[in-house]
Specification:
heterodimer, A: about 350 residues, mainly alpha, MetI-like fold, two-stranded antiparallel sheet, 2 strands, disordered N terminus, B: about 300 residues, about 75% helix
């Protein structure tokens, strides 16, 4: 497999380059794999990066292009001039997209789109509130913090498919949920109750994740800031609003972004908890999966493309408008400048 | 964790200082600590109660599966025996999961280490663009990978093979590995490698003998996270595989149907769920500090 060959090919060039170390200025990441005489960091970087970029091209770029291409075709069977049955795909232009807004399939799409949006908004909102509360409570605890942290990781570690089964059992008509509530709700059938079941199960699994991220953000706030606020007479709520939340905001923003992107592609949980093809919980991912299962690749691809665009739009809004620093790119730039300045200093000292 | 420890120290110090304070203040303090402990108990129950219920249910006999007692009345391993009795191929499914998650993890780590080294140690153009693109791929919806690749792999005759799961798995494993490893390597000081190179090491030697041992904890953390994500993967395995002999454990348990068609075999499902989850829970308990570090890498900048 590629696994075995990768280290060897990638390990070769650095050894060769050892002699020319330190002289490398930017020769550009575009420098290809052709053996050259002037080894530079750019070339080495290109060699080190190319396996990763190649795999990502196969598993990300190709599917994206292929999906866009596929979404313009539709499987058709008909009779040709000689009366033989032909099966093939006909170019239909944007018909698959136009169909998203008309007729029966259009109704199903809009329903799935609505469900996806509804689940994303409600679950992420609840998760964030609960997660911040969890983090604030855990930040107060000194004893048993590691014990709590272990228990908070359990819902995160449970595979989503297993948590779907688990909640399906809890929400069984004669299961524990109904007996605790004293109700007789059909949670796992069609209807509002099934939406609620999905939301509860999803929030259970993911609120701890937000809690952990926020806790990490809380722990880097210096205690002195709170001391100063206390001296100035700020109460708990005031401290929360004026210190804690603004300082945790960058962390929280990244956490919420990741959770939203994850919620938008929700599949496993409704699939296992309620089942495929259920109108009240069908998400875009489930709809696209169902279509491709029926071998209707054209419309399946159209759904996949729409979902991708939806996800990309949300991500762009977060990064551009709200300023979520996902890659740490700003830090990276700052560090590089710092290092360059150090080098210049060193060079100056040597001269 | 040092800040936490320091803060813990500070708190215990302030407690000692307050020991001579008026009774009223002390009462207020105990009330506050009670409410904190109550909150923590609630968190604890919230996180573990559903998981506990899965374990308890898995240990009941089929006859008393609908009991609501907190402990299984007659304790029974009946469900576990049924899970492994051969007709479900669950043992095989576990093995498949192990192979798929293991190979995915190793492949993602190898690619991730080289990428992270390039990004954290080398100077080249378009660096932040490349990192941005790699991170951006992590938000690519699984279904948008599955639909086109399903067709492609069908043409290749790859349906019901391990590579049909492993290669698409890399679409989320690589960005995860690159992000984590880059964060770790950026935190390691460059000076040591520089010193090694001044002492005559080549860049490759400096990487292998200095950076890699230092980055080992980060690599390990990344391995755990990648493994857990791959182990939990569902939609790719569900779509690419229809042969029970090759499907992974998460898919296998979602398709669990018992001998009787009228009643879903909840006991068996819970037992299988426990078996799939317990290795992860053990990992979480043993490596919790590392996992939290990995999950919050970059978040606590």
């Amino acid at each position: 497999m590629s696994t075995a060959s990768v280290p060897r090919t990638a390990a070769g060039p650095p050894r060769r380059q050892g002699r020319g170390r330190g002289t490398g200025r930017d020769t550009g990441a575009g420098a290809g794999a052709t053996a050259g005489r002037t080894p530079g960091e750019g070339r080495m970087a290109a060699l080190l990066l190319s396996p990763t970029l190649l795999v990502l091209a196969l598993v990300i770029a190709y599917p994206l292009i292929s999906a866009i291409h596929q979404s313009l075709y539709r499987a058709q069977s008909g009779l040709d001039a000689d009366g033989y049955v032909t099966e093939g795909e006909a170019f239909v232009g944007l018909a698959n997209y136009v169909d998203l807004f008309a007729g029966e399939s259009g109704r199903r799409f809009l329903n799935a789109f609505g469900n996806t949006t509804f689940f994303t908004v409600t679950t992420v909102l609840l998760e964030t509130l609960l997660g911040v509360a969890l983090a604030l409570a855990m930040n107060r605890a000194f004893k048993g913090r590691s014990f709590l942290r272990a228990s908070i990781l359990v819902p995160w570690a449970v595979p989503t498919a297993v948590s779907g089964l688990l909640w399906r059992w809890i929400f069984q008509s004669d299961g524990i949920a109904n007996s605790l509530l004293g109700s007789e709700i059909l949670w796992t059938a069609e209807g509002t109750a099934s939406k609620l079941a999905v939301i509860i199960a999803e929030v259970w699994k993911t609120a701890p994740f937000i809690g952990l991220l926020v806790l990490a953000g809380l722990q880097i706030i210096p205690e002195e800031v709170y001391e100063a606020a206390k001296i100035d007479g700020a109460g708990w709520w005031r401290q929360l609003g004026s210190i804690t939340l603004p300082l945790v905001k960058p962390t929280l923003l990244v956490a919420v972004l990741f959770r939203m992107l994850d919620a938008l592609r929700m599949f496993d949980l409704p699939f296992v908890l309620i089942g495929p093809g259920k109108e009240s919980v069908e998400t875009l991912s489930m709809l696209a999966w169902d279509e491709s299962n029926q071998l209707r690749y054209g419309s399946a691809s159209a759904f996949a493309v729409i979902l991708f665009l939806y996800v990309a739009a949300v991500a762009i809004v977060f990064v551009k408008v709200l300023g979520a620093d996902v890659t740490g790119a700003r830090q990276l730039g700052a560090k590089r400048r710092e290092r360059q300045a150090q080098r210049i200093q060193k060079a100056g000292a040597a001269a | 964790m040092t800040i936490t420890d320091l803060r813990g120290l500070a708190a215990s110090e302030s407690c000692n200082r307050d020991s001579g304070a008026p009774v009223q203040a002390r009462q207020k303090r105990t009330w506050r600590s009670y409410s904190v402990y109550l909150g923590l108990a609630l968190i604890f129950i919230y996180c573990l109660a559903p998981f506990y219920w899965m374990i308890v249910s898995s240990l009941r006999r089929t006859a008393d599966i609908f009991d609501n007692t907190l402990l299984p009345a007659p304790f029974s391993l009946e469900n576990y025996a049924k899970v492994f009795d051969g007709s479900t191929m669950f043992g095989q499914a576990l093995l498949n999961s192990l192979i798929v998650a293991g190979v995915t993890t190793v492949a993602a780590l190898v690619l991730g280490i080289f990428t992270a080294y390039a990004i954290s140690r080398l100077n080249f153009r378009f660096k932040s663009v490349i990192l941005g693109v790699i991170i951006a791929t992590s938000m690519f919806p699984g279904i948008s990978v599955v639909v086109p690749l399903l067709r492609f792999f069908t043409d290749l005759g790859w349906i019901n093979t391990y590579q049909a799961m492993i290669i698409p798995n890399l679409s989320f494993a690589i960005p995860l590995a690159v992000w984590n490893l880059t964060t770790f390597m950026k935190q390691l000081p460059f000076d040591l490698e520089e010193a090694a190179m001044i002492d005559g090491c080549t860049k490759w030697q400096a990487f292998r003998k200095v950076l890699l041992p230092l980055a080992a904890p980060g690599v390990f953390t990344t391995a755990i996270l990648t493994f857990i994500h791959s182990w939990n993967e569902f939609i790719i395995a569900l779509s690419m595989i229809n042969d029970p002999a090759i499907q992974t454990a998460t898919v296998a348990i979602s398709k669990f149907t018992g001998a009787t068609e009228f009643q879903a075999p909840f006991g068996e499902q819970m037992a299988a769920g426990v078996i799939v989850t317990v290795p992860l829970v053990i990992m979480v308990l043993v490596f919790q500090r590392r996992i939290v570090e990995g999950l919050t890498a970059g978040a606590g900048k």
